[in-house]
Structures are given as C-alpha cells and as structure tokens.
Write a structure and sequence with these properties.
homodimer; alpha/beta
Chain lengths: 449, 449
C-alpha cells in the first residue's frame, strides 16, 4: 500500500498525525501552500500577541522599568534556554544574540584562539566548498586576521546526490580532510542550504575529537526541524550557531543563537567585547572582564521586539514536547519530504529536473530540492508559475559554473501537512508543463533570503 | 523676568513652543513624567501600528515575499537615509545594522586598518578615560588584535564641571593628546553618558585632521537631541556610530547605525564579512567582495520588527523638519535642561548634590546630572523616592573610586515639556527631603541600561 501517493492517502496520514494540533498555532494565509519555512518560518499567533504586549505594555507603559519589571534583561538567556533542548544543549549553555553571521565570527575567532592557546601548530580551517556564503566569507575574514588558511573540502553539494550503501558521501569527503595534522578547526553547516543534504554530525564530531580538531556547526537549517545532539556521548561538538527565523519561526531577521561547549566556554574570549558580555555589566568597570559561561557571547543590547517574536516562535516547537518532541517532528518531516519526493518525481523527471536531495532519510534534512538539468525549463519561471498556483517554494540560481539552478521546497513539520505535499507536487507538475509550453517569460528575478 | 522658575512661566514657554505638536506622537503614561529618553525613548503610536502591520500583513500574510514586496531588503538603508540628515550625513552614507557595540567594532577595525594601509607608524588610539564601558571594551579588544595601545585621556567627566571662559575643558584634554605623532585614531562619545557634557566635535575633528588622526564618534546620546554635523566644512569626521533606542525612539534594543566618510568607505573593509555586506549578496559568489559604499557595513540579516519600530521612531524626529528641524529641537532641549537645572538647584544643593552637567549651552548635551556629594543622601534611594512620585530619571552608581554616584535626567525635546521640567524639579526636592529624613531603606538596586 502506498498511501502517500494519493490525496486520500495523504489525508489519512494527516488525520493520524500526533502533531496535528501544532498547525493551529500559526497564521497561514488561506489558499496558500507555504513551503519556504526554511527561509522564513510562518507567523505564530502568539508572536503577534507577545510583540503587541511588548510594544504597548512593556515599552509604552513600562518604559525603562521593563528591563527589570518585564524581564527584558533576562530574555535573551530565557529564549536561549528554550532553544537549548532542541539541539541537545544544556540550560545556560546557549544564548540568543546578534545575527548568525556575527555569532559565527565570534565562535570562529574563539575556536582559532583556543587552538593557538593550546600551542598547536595548526593553521588550517576546513569547510565545505559549497557552504552558505556568509559562512565562507566570515571564515575567510577570521582566517585572514589570524593568518590561517581556509581549505575547501567536500563534494559539490549537488553531485553525487545519492549515497552508496552505508556512506554519507558529503561527510566522507570532510572526514578525509580531517586527518591532515595542520587542520585545527572544521566549520560545517549541518543541512546544506541548496540540496538539503545532511552531514553526519556525530561521525564528524567523533573523528574531529580523535584528530584534535575543533568543530563549529551552523545549525541554520536544522534547529527546529532536525534533531541535533551537540553533546552526544563520545561525539560532542565544540561550537555551534543557528538561525532564529527559519524553522524556529522567530520572524524576519530574528536574532540568532550561539552555543559553546561548557569545557571551552570560559577558556577563551570571543572578540566582540560589548558591555552586556561583561561579568558585571552594570558596574561599568574600566576594563573588560568576560562573563562566566555563554553570557560572554552577548555583545550589545538585544533587539527586544524581535527577540520577543523569537520567544513565541520557539514556543511553537516546544509545544511538541508532550507529543514526542524533536523525534516526532523529525519523523513527520521525513514523511513530508518523502511524500513530496515521490509525488513529484514523475512529472519532475519528465521535465528534466534531477533530485538534488538524498532519498535516504539519514542523509536528508527537512527540504526537497529539484535541480534544473540541461533539459529542464527555466527554473525561475517554473517557481513563478508555481507561486501563481498558490505554492511558495524558492528558487536558487546557480552560484558558479557546474552547479545547477535549484527549486527548493522546505517542509516545516510544525505546520505543513501531507496533503500540502501532495497538492504542491501536483502544482509543480502543472507549472512545469506550463513553462515548457509557454517559455519562461521575462519577469525580473527576485531577491529573497 | 525669569519665566522658567514658575509653573505658569513654564506653561507659557510650552504654549509658545513650535514643537508642541510633536508630543502627541507618543504614548506617554498619564501621571508620569518620563526623563529617561536618553536610556529608552518613549513609544511612538506609529511604531505600534507599523510593527503590527509588519507582523500581520508583511510577515503573516506576505511571508517570504515581503523581502521584495514590502521592501524589507531596502529597509535598513531607508532608515539610514532617514537618520542621515539628523547627524549631517548624506543620503546613502549611513546605514542601520547590528548594535552600537558591533558597529563600533567594525569602524575601529576599519580605522586602524586605514592607518596601517597608509603605512603610518602610529599605533595609539586615544579615548576618554570615562567613556561608556562598551566603547572602551570594544576599543581594547580591537587594539589587542592589532597590537595597538589604548591611551586614556581627558578629564574625569565629573570634574571640573564648569568651563573657564572660552574653553571646553573636556575637549581641551583630548586636543592636547592629539599632538603625539604616535596617535592614529581618536574615539570619543559626543555626549558623556554620565555628566551630559558635550565634546566640541568640530574643534576635535579640525585638530585631528591637522594631526593626521582619524576620528571615530559615538553619537549614542546625540542623535535626535543634539545637532551633529559630520561633514562640516574643514571639520569633517571620519567614522561614526549611534544608538537607535535613545533619542531616536526606536524601542528597546533597536538596531544601531553606522556612518563612514565617503572618502574612506571604499578604501577599507570592516571585519564582519556577512553576506548582506557583499556586493552581490544574491549571487552567492564563492569569495567575499564588499559592497560599494556604506552597504558593506551590513553583516547579517537585520531584525525587521525592531528595524520597523526604529523607522517609526526616526519619523517622530523628522516630523520636526517643517518646524525648524534639529536646530529647533536643540533650542528646546537647551531650554528644558536650563529650566530643570535652575528649578532644581536650590533644593539639590541644599541636600549636598553637585551639578555634574555644564551650565554653558555649548558644553551640554540633552541631560542634567546631579552628582551625589559627600553630604548627599543615598542617590539610589532618592531616585526610588522620585519614581514613586511619578518622575522617572535614572541612577548611575560610581564606576570607580573618586567618581560620585549620579542622578540623571534626560530631556527629549520631541516630547518633554517645560512644565515637566518644573514639576520634576519640585519632586526631586521632595524626594531629597524624604530620604534625608527617613534614610535610604533597603531595596535592591535595579539593573537598567
């Protein structure tokens, strides 16, 4: 029986979904199938209420008093503590601050600082060749400052897609690079932003620990959709950052998070010495004395309105705790992406699309990406036609020769359904047929994050 | 005639105030006199509306499409362009990004980079001994990385308060430090956060230019209250940052702004290479290529909800444009602080308070600070008693031996009135008498920004 390949089968899966109650937490425009929660998560009703309260009551009425009376001063840590269990971190180990980019700068600087402090003659940082641009740019900047070298390893994320039995090819290429004794730090994004391929976080952490290499993970496309165990036995990570506005549903440009393994956090400083990272910020001491623990990764005053929306967003995922938590979210996510891959495959392949996302569950994040092969119609035009049919995914142009354009479909297990996956697959088939027949048209390409 | 020293005189000044219509833009809790707009500006009605729109319509309904359709992608630059004329910057020269602390890190790094690039044998950064902690911490961090030295100059901000005829003593102490040929950069806060003393920005810029020293200004307590002319003829500044949540009324933790003189902006990079500072962020190029102009000072994705509130906050000041603009705001600010100083002086001095703020207009920002002399009652208890009487100022404990505790009263010319200044002075007298009689009590000291 192949329930997922019929609308009624998908509806049956949704009817049996334990996480079904979570969807009612969100504002979802009627008539729209939203498959871009990996770019910007949907609005939780509670975010609108919480931000309105922060505006009118806390700011408008409480004014400066709300730093104490409304707990603004503790909010970044409170939201960090709410995120922590989603990624396997302990309470007090993870804090919300700044953007993913700025946090990555902090942890890379600290990681290299730690290698130097240990007196190791290592000066190479390894990363994926096709890691997200900000990660590569930030890494290059930090390495320039420390006179380290960035070594790009890994496969191009789009080829080969499907693993040989037993192996994660993307991770294997990284593992091979860790044995060079010059390597001091490896920085990776857990889920590839283009293909949705998932690194084997535990295997890389184990190998890195064995090789004396520090690990820095970007969890932008994992947190809230893919379980992460930063402190897994014998496979502990060293540093991690992540994004608030994707699967954590924190709103546009929500502040990001940062985690440092407790065994390192007090051993090294991060480079952005803002007053709120000071051990005693309100004593206004002459010299900088970093706070103990993850609080030292805070820099300036956090954007309270955006932070409040993030708090509401995180609570939509923590609502899954009594329903199976991240394990249940992961199971549903895999079921959704599996459904969409199978339901869209025939039409996609007939129009020259190639699956960029691994079909094996353990190699896949929470998105499905179809690559535009040489026979495929213009991918941008296909996505425009699909949006006109009420299905929002996104289009990622090729960043360099040899890589294809990509059609991305993110599945947020907190609100997407199997019925949506099935209907979106039908709409994709229709959009492909339309563009193949009419040509791409001339609309300008949009700029989206 | 001394109108300011009576309630009716103050009411007459308010009745004649051309800027009177601006106050109606704000939510101001009834029965409260709010004199802490230098810590957190009041809520504009339009901010509540704009953020609600950004939440419900832009995020909730528009979802990812709002990066284009609602102009999120241009908002940081749009708000920067709205702030620019308030500080004498040109359109396209100033952008909103990150926090003041993070922006200070960027500009200090760039300023030192520029000195190095020019091949100058300078490696000293001069700053005020009692500059705001974040500024000193950040400067020390950047100087450590570049192997530069931070040299603290200036007077302690609280002594001597009143200038000899003709001179600004705080600025004179800095000017004296600029002649050392080892000095490459001078970093100053325009308005001192404790005393409210104002630096002579033009004189320091002129002297710095003559000495080949680059200037970095923190405009946290100036923007929106004190006119700044970053590009004054023959007295141009080099770099500036400022705060969104004080007189710009941007809300708690609002993002900050950064300006770089157009002659430098493309000559040097800032160190936080986030993707949104890239020349072509949506091309996802392999290497970092900084944007032309101030856009290179953007790093990660901006917090749109907080940015939207800042946009509304800035518009409350731009509403002064047809009413005389920053010059009118400055005139009113000086009148308010003058009124408060005069109305509070007798009671304050009778209880051992000493005026920490310069009485000369050209040496004063937009706040009045009373220092707790040796005979004064406990300042924290006085501020608590004052708040209980419906007047919110703030208390700043001594940061080091030799400096007094401070009672601060910020005057926001966009919404504060002479009547409030007069009533607050009466309440201060009452609070002083109460604490002198009853003793300080035992309440814990709060933590506020």
């Amino acid at each position: 029986m192949d329930e997922a390949l019929s609308l009624s089968g998908c509806r049956a899966l949704d009817a049996a979904d334990r996480l079904k109650p979570l969807r009612a937490q969100f504002e979802l425009p009627p008539g729209l199938i939203y498959l871009d929660g990996n770019s910007l998560g949907a609005l939780p009703h509670s975010a609108a209420d919480a931000v309105q309260h922060a505006l009118q009551q806390e700011w408008g009425h409480g004014l400066i008093r709300s730093w104490n009376d409304a707990g603004w001063i503790h909010r970044a840590q409170a939201v960090g503590d709410a995120i922590a269990p989603l990624v396997g971190a302990g309470a007090g180990e993870l804090v919300v601050a700044d953007s993913t980019s700025v946090n990555l700068h902090k942890v890379l600087w600290a990681a290299i600082g730690l290698v130097q402090q240990r007196g190791l003659q290592r000066h190479v940082l390894v990363t994926d060749r096709d890691n997200f641009p900000t990660d590569r740019y930030i890494a290059q900047g930090v390495c320039d400052a420390w006179k380290w070298t960035v070594r790009e390893a890994g496969l191009a994320p789009d080829t080969p897609v499907q693993a040989a039995p037993g192996g994660n090819p993307r991770s294997a290429a990284i593992l091979a690079a860790l044995s060079d004794p010059q390597v001091g730090v490896v920085m990776l994004t857990h889920v590839d932003y283009r293909s949705g391929a998932l690194h084997d976080l535990a295997a890389i952490n184990r190998a890195a620990r064995a090789a004396g290499v520090l690990t820095v993970w970007d969890l932008a496309h994992s947190a809230g959709a893919v379980p992460v165990d930063l402190k897994a036995t014998a496979a502990q990570a060293d540093f991690a950052v992540g994004c608030g506005y994707k699967y954590l549903n924190g709103g546009p440009g929500a502040p990001a998070f940062v985690w440092v393994h407790p065994s390192h956090v007090n051993a090294v400083e991060q480079p952005l010495r803002g007053w709120l990272g000071h051990a005693a910020p309100f004593d206004f001491e002459a010299g900088y004395r970093p706070a103990q623990g993850i609080a030292r990764y805070v820099c300036g005053t956090p954007p309270i309105l955006s932070l409040t929306a993030l708090q509401a967003g995180v609570s939509t995922l923590r609502a899954a705790d009594p329903l199976g938590g991240m394990a249940a979210l992961r199971a549903k996510s895999l079921s959704l992406t599996r459904t969409f891959m199978r339901a869209s495959r025939a039409a996609a392949q007939a129009h020259g699309l190639e699956l960029a996302t691994p079909t094996r569950d353990e190699h896949r994040g929470s998105q499905v990406s179809w690559a535009c092969g040489p026979r495929a119609p213009d991918g941008y035009a296909v996505m425009r036609a699909l949006i006109a049919r009420g299905v929002i995914g996104d289009f990622r142009a090729s960043p360099r020769p040899g890589l294809p354009d990509i059609l991305r479909f993110g599945f947020a297990p907190a609100y997407n359904t199997h019925e949506e996956a099935w209907l979106a697959a039908q709409a994709l088939g229709g959009a492909l047929g339309q563009v193949a027949q009419q040509g791409p048209g001339t609309s300008a390409r949009p700029r989206v994050t």
